[in-house]
Amino acid sequence: MPGLNDEMTPAPSPREDRQAWCHESDGVLAIGVQTQLPGYGEDAEPLLLHHVPTGEGLIGAFDGAGGAGAAMAYRSPQGKRRSGAWVGARVARAEVQKWFHTVARGQGPYDVELLRRHLHATLAQWRSPTRSKIVGTMRRELPTTMAAVLYRPRGSVVDCQVLWAGDSRAYVLAHNTGLHPLSRDHTVETDALEQLLQDPPMTNVICADRHFEIETRQVALDLPTVLVCATDGFFGYVATPAQFEWHLLNTLQQADNGLDWAKRLAGRVVSYSADDASLSLVASGYRDFRTLRAGFSRRADYVFRSYSGPPVGTVGQDGGLRRWQAETWDKYRPNYELWLRQVDEDNT
Fold this sequence. Notes:
Blueprint: E1 18-25, E2 28-35, E3 47-51, E4 56-64, E5 72-75, E6 81-83, H1 84-104, H2 112-125, E7 144-154, E8 157-165, E9 169-174, E10 178-181, H3 192-198, E11 215-222, E12 225-230, H4 232-235, H5 242-254, H6 258-272, E13 277-284, H7 289-295, H8 297-307, H9 320-336, H10 338-346
Antiparallel strand pairs: 1-2, 2-13, 3-4, 4-7, 5-6, 7-8, 8-11, 9-10, 9-12, 12-13
Helix pairs in contact: 1-2, 5-6, 5-8
């Protein structure tokens, strides 16, 4: 993996709104994907960091909240206008990267509250000197979501610190049980299927003008493992929560290598999403890409048979699609929410 100050170079892409990153070495595969739709662009670049001497790293995804932060906040030297959401996502990404560098080098305590204070202070420096006349409970200055996972290997397990705010998500992808969120969205509706149907407002986002929280939890996962952070452009435009897992596994099975997987994910998400999308992923403990792909082949077959799409003719039936969504969600939900139940227990 690159050193602390190295950035991964985007791979050539047939379209300017798609970028794919990949690096593989020493039993670690990292990929990143970013897609942008014309007129959008609030998602920051996916964050992929790895500290070679210790083997610890961090992945992250940041989505500027375009509705709450639509006001212009920055104009580039070339005259390009940037919204507060665009600025917020990139400032948050830079602060999280700086925080990881400090932690990895042993120059400071592992302190999420310290990260939160630094984020708030830095965002405050970017606030406009003129106050907008637009006020309300939904408006924010420089708002962004965040999902990040700090991982540290320890023998046959990897210790993970999950950090999040808003509705970007952190996941673990397991061979036998599939995709599991490690973070619970900060929204008024927390049922994953209902979120797809309603697009509920967020109750907590990183921003410059009011208090916010960075929720955090610790988990220990057996190696090998796959960690994923994604913005809602990846998981918010599917018919059922299981289809995000299907897109991950189907493109993995089609791919020849890590970069090919990232490119296929970029192509896949622009085929169904109506938003910008960014994703960072790290697979640890696999001998090589072929071993990783083979490890998920059986799960990919199962998800295809069970969840890849509604049966032929279902969509045209009165309420047929909704019934299929409910039935598949009832089947998929127990395993999917395995780690979320622990989040809820921690908060009680």
